[in-house]
Write a structure and sequence with these properties.
There is one protein chain. It contains three helices and seven strands. It is of the alpha+beta class and about 140 residues long. The chain has a single domain, classed as Aspartate Aminotransferase, domain 1 (Alpha-Beta Complex), CATH 3.90.1150.200. The strands form two sheets. Strands 1-2-3-4-5 form a five-stranded antiparallel sheet, with helices on one face. It has a two-stranded antiparallel ribbon with strand order 6-7. About 5% of the residues have low confidence.
């Protein structure tokens, strides 16, 4: 399986989003606009599992449109500051936010998570799909 990038990725994502519940189409499209506005040079791609992904100095975030919400995931979510506790999940490194309405995109804490993810990827890009973890603290290892 390979990543899909460039124009082909954008067309794939447009088609993927266009088949969903109208209310969630607006949320997904709003999320795409928010990412492009917030993250200078943000690129969209589709990962090998056919999940729309946002890249900035490597893969950073992804989204999946479900029946009742859009799951907006952060690949390195456990390493992000989250004082407002928007992030959910129990995985080793991934955390996500459930977006149910367009107004959810306007939360300042969501934008702060995006900005923190960008800074993390700039400071320490991911090597492939693995995330180094500090086993003693359950936090991302710092070098």
């Amino acid at each position: 399986m390979r990543m899909i990038e460039g124009k082909v990725a954008r067309e794939f994502i447009d088609a993927y989003v266009g088949k969903k519940e109208p209310k969630l189409i607006k949320v997904a499209e709003g999320l795409r606009r928010l990412m492009k506005k917030t993250v200078k040079g943000c690129r969209e791609s589709v990962n090998p599992w056919k999940i729309p992904t946002f890249e900035s100095n490597g893969q950073m975030c992804f989204f999946m449109v479900g029946k009742n919400h859009v799951t907006f995931g952060f690949i390195r979510g456990t390493a992000l500051p989250d004082p407002e506790r928007l992030l959910e999940g129990t995985g080793k490194s991934v955390r996500h936010v459930k977006l149910r309405e367009v107004k959810d995109l306007k939360r300042p804490a969501l934008k702060k998570l995006i900005v923190a993810a960008v800074k993390l990827n700039k400071r320490k890009p991911m090597a492939g799909m693995k995330v180094e973890m500090n086993k003693s603290r359950g936090k991302e290892a710092k070098k």
